[in-house]
Automatic annotation (TrEMBL):
Gene3D superfamilies: Alkaline Phosphatase, subunit A. This is Membrane protein. It comes from Streptomyces mashuensis. Residues 14-250 form the Sulfatase N-terminal domain. InterPro entries: Alkaline_phosphatase_core_sf, STM4013-like, Sulfatase_N.
Length: 267
């Protein structure tokens, strides 16, 4: 069990990675088949948890995440939440939960001296449109370039290079470093040299991103303690029961991979 209240009040930095559109079954099969060895070495024992997202596409899922609502286990009894906005007086919050008295997690972390930094991926983080400005505007600092987006085959490398530069630049203060990985978002058929997007090409996209995400995490945690949270915001349908895309409450959209762990400095 992670005591997020203790971790955050002690000033431990946080890496929050969302693997955009990544289905749970794709993440699990890639893990089981040894296609993501770098992540497998860093995930908690047993690998990815199956959880259910609070939103069926990028915008509502991330709004929920940044308001304190991470994906939940598909069962009646839930573990304590990592973080939560101060609730009404009648509700009791477990002591392990980081309680923030602010309208968002990002603002709440700011009250504890954190710098919140976003490395965007999909266009909801691009500021190219008014709607694409909503999520990045919640951060102290946000970064997006076209090469961070899914049509770029080497997008994760560019994103990780940017994230590591930011972590180095802000060394010495608590950081919430958020990375929205776009490689697993359509289009990803190019990872198999095909036009169509499928579960196989999403698996290939995740296998591509694995090396760079491993590099990000191992570099950050080489000397310092980090709380690392990785999950998908939602899944994607590729003809399942006739459905395509997201924004629908189909199980392949609702079920997402999730992992949270505390990694200590290892030097």
């Amino acid at each position: 069990m992670i005591n997020a209240a203790d971790i955050i009040t002690s000033g431990t930095s946080i890496l929050f990675v969302t693997l955009d559109s990544l289905r749970y079954d794709v993440a699990r099969s890639a893990y089981d088949e040894g296609m993501t060895p770098h992540l497998a070495a860093l995930l908690p024992e047993g690998g990815w948890q199956r959880r259910q997202t609070p939103g069926t596409f990028t915008l509502p899922a991330h709004m929920a995440f940044f308001s304190g609502f991470l994906p939940k286990l598909p069962q009646p009894k839930q573990p304590p939440r990592l973080w939560e906005c101060r609730p009404p007086a009648f509700k009791t919050v477990p002591p392990e939960t980081f309680l923030f008295d602010a309208p968002s997690l990002l603002a709440g972390l700011g009250q504890h001296g954190y710098r919140t930094v976003c490395v965007g991926g999909v266009t909801y983080f691009s500021r190219e449109t008014p709607l694409g400005s909503v999520l990045p505007a919640m951060f102290d600092e946000d970064h997006w370039r076209p090469e961070f987006c899914s049509p770029e085959m080497d997008s994760t490398r560019h994103q990780v290079d940017q994230a590591l530069d930011l972590a180095d630049r802000h060394r010495g203060r608590p950081l919430l470093l958020f990375v929205n990985v776009s490689a697993t978002h359509v289009p990803h058929g190019h990872y198999l040299g095909q036009q169509d997007d499928t579960t196989a090409s999403q698996r290939a996209a995740l296998a591509y991103a694995d090396e760079h995400l491993g590099r990000l995490i191992t570099t950050l945690t080489a000397t310092d303690r980090w709380l690392v949270i990785m999950c998908a915001d939602h899944g994607d349908a590729y003809g399942d029961d006739g459905y395509h895309g997201r924004g629908i409450a189909h199980p392949v959209v609702m079920n997402v991979p999730y992992a949270a762990t505390v990694l200590q400095g290892r030097r």
